[in-house]
Amino acid sequence: MKPSTVFRVCTLGILSIFVFFINPTACYIKSSVEQRQERRAIAVLFGAARGNVTFTESGNKVRMIGVIEGLSPGQHGFHIHEKGDVSMGCASTLGHYNPHNKQHGAPQDANRHAGDLGNILADERGVASFVINDHHVRLTGPTSVLGRSVVVHSDPDDLGKGGHPDSLTTGHAGSRLACGVIGTLETASMMHSGAWVLKASLVPLISLLLFNLL
């Protein structure tokens, strides 16, 4: 092998290591991706109705996107319950998640359970497709709902204003049709690997350019 060729190979090897491990641009890309991370979770519901709800925490709110099938047309109470225990079906999820010991209310009320999410609306086919943005539901911190459960009820939630004996505790929303435990939907590892792939993809490109210049 000619000395010039050896010099090129050694130089490219050193520069490639620099790009992959030390390159400030690559580090900035990795840091930027980490800053844009969003915590995500999912609940898969089972029972008389079936579906799933995904949770995405971004800033000071959580967005819930769901599709639930097998409902009767109309409104159905929709809540986060205290326990993620479904060993006895939805009955073992206990009551609405209420870490601040408040009364049941509407999602926009100041006096409401953290788990009070109002109603979802099923169409004539019995399918409810919905998007809910809420500032009380959290996926991080001391009041995180991870490991708790989502429950959909047979009747409309009266939002604490129906005057029934259970209006201020359950919203008089009837029986529990379906429920599911809220579990982590991890994306951090995928985003990290994406940053490293992007970094690695710079190596052959820069190597090619340097090879032509040397």
Automatic annotation (TrEMBL):
Q: Name one Pfam family in it.
A: Sod_Cu
What's in the keyword line of the UniProt record? Antioxidant, Copper, Disulfide bond, Membrane, Metal-binding, Oxidoreductase, Transmembrane, Transmembrane helix, Zinc
Task: Say yes or no: keyword Disulfide bond present.
Answer: yes
Give the cofactor note: Binds 1 zinc ion per subunit. Binds 1 copper ion per subunit.
Segments passing through the bilayer: 6-29
Superoxide dismutase copper/zinc binding domain boundaries: 50-182
* MF-aspect GO terms: copper ion binding; superoxide dismutase activity
What this protein needs as a cofactor is: Zn(2+); Cu cation
Q: What is its EC number?
A: 1.15.1.1
The keyword Metal-binding belongs to this UniProt entry's keyword annotation? yes
Q: Which reaction does it catalyse?
A: 2 superoxide + 2 H(+) = H2O2 + O2
Q: Which family does it belong to?
A: Belongs to the Cu-Zn superoxide dismutase family.
Role noted for this protein:
Destroys radicals which are normally produced within the cells and which are toxic to biological systems.
PANTHER family given for it? SUPEROXIDE DISMUTASE CU-ZN -RELATED
The name of this protein is Superoxide dismutase [Cu-Zn]
